[in-house]
Amino acid sequence: MLLGISAGIAAYKSAQLARLLKQAGCEVRVVMTEGAQAFIAPLTLQALTGEAVRTSLLDPEAEAGMGHIELARWADTILIAPGTADLMARLALGIADDLLTTLCLASEAERIMAPAMNQAMWRHPATQRNAACLQQDGWRLLGPESGEQACGDTGPGRMLEPEAIMAELATLSSAAHLARQAHEPEQQTQLPAQGLHIAITAGPTREPLDPVRYLSNHSSGKMGYALAAVATELGAQVTLISGPVSLPTPEGVTRIDVETAVEMHATSRRLASECDLFIGCAAVADYRAEAPAEHKIKKRVDEDGLTLKLIKNPDIIADITAMRDAAGGRPFVVGFAAETRDLESYARDKLERKRLDMIVANNVATQGLGFGADHNAALLLWRDGDGEGGEDLPPQPKRELARMIIDRALACLNTRPVH
Ligand code: PMT
Q1: Where do the record's region annotations for Phosphopantothenate--cysteine ligase lie (predicted)?
Q2: Ligand 1 pocket test: which of 281, 351, 359 has the largest number of ligand atoms within 8 Å of its C-beta?
Q3: Ligand 1 atom nearest to CA at 281
Q4: Is the dihedral of CA 221, 239, 178, 56 positive or negative?
Q5: pTM
Q6: DSSP state of 26
Q7: Ligand 1 centre distance from Cα of residue 226 (Å)
Q8: In CA terms, which of 194, 308, 408, 416 is 20 to 30 Å from 130?
Q9: Is the minimum distance from the CB of 313 to ligand 1 under 6 angstroms?
Q10: Of 256, 237, 80, the residue nearest 168 (C-alpha)
Q11: For 326, left (φ over 0), alpha (ψ -120 to 50), or beta?
């Protein structure tokens, strides 16, 4: 295990991570960026791993022992914790301007990163772009999680705790091998969603009218976040494409924040090409303002009304079911239908029209269920290799409903015809 440490306050947690990796039986070599050394001394890591810590690309003495290319080949897994916004940007661009970035470029090892940064930096579109780009390049991102930050802000950007990273490693492939021994010394049961990548949209979208106003809806994100938490517990690699909500990221889930339907569409399409199961739980605005005003729209004293021209947003899940990869396949696609009447007939219509594999229809006019509530009920309709099916799921906590939805989707996935 090559443990890369970059310049974040969370670097102090890397010492504990190195200790846990050693305890789990990993051979650990540490590479630190120049900035990381301002947060934690290389000597600490050297004492914990029993190996000299590498910090420089151009160090003749270290190169004489094990050259950087050799080190890149030596690693089965590169684990970077913490990964800063700057490091993510450099890796996304393929820049090799220090030892750590050079090793990442030269290595064919499994690559995992636990990002850590200020919440605004994490939410910034550039960082989100880089996160998506790294995932596309094969990086697995663990976290970050939401919470109070060292700088006093609250939000997403906290590095996962070392114990949580170890638990994540235990569900991953080759890196997990040794870590798993520490967690499950006796028995290694295969989790039902292990090896699957599941992408889930959640929450509302916001469609700007002017710099201070937007069109949106009452989605809180609870249903989508429950699905993400359950899918992760079942062993899947989960990416949550989230509209603006105030929920913490479920442990182990990679979250990409978006605002508008157009942004959600672009991110979803990118992820759909690499996932096995796509769940569209977000309440996506069907329309957006044709031309959001550059400045705040002023109230007209001489007119009683205001006319807004709206145009159609792209239909995310319909576009995904229309996608085909080189082998003619696409992910199994689950859509939702939020209705206030004629639940079954509208749901069947959406299942057909959007060419979905499964639909979760919920009546959002029922008191205490649906938007913003902690409970929900649904009618599931699906098509799989065995034909068509349906099931009524009674009112229950969203978390339990999520489990039933994922269980059914996994069962269908196993019998689905090749698309
Ligand atoms: O977030 P919560 O407060 O927990 O509430 C959960 C929920 C009520 C939002 C959720 O259970 C739900 O019903 N989500 C879907 C809401 C919705 O937009 O439904 P719809 O019937 O308008 O859309 C049908 C499907 O098409 C949905 O899967 C939607 O994600 C998708 N869609 C819609 C429009 C669009 N432009 N692109 C889409 O992909």
Answers
A1: 198-419
A2: 281
A3: 14
A4: negative
A5: 0.62
A6: -
A7: 15
A8: 194
A9: yes
A10: 237
A11: alpha
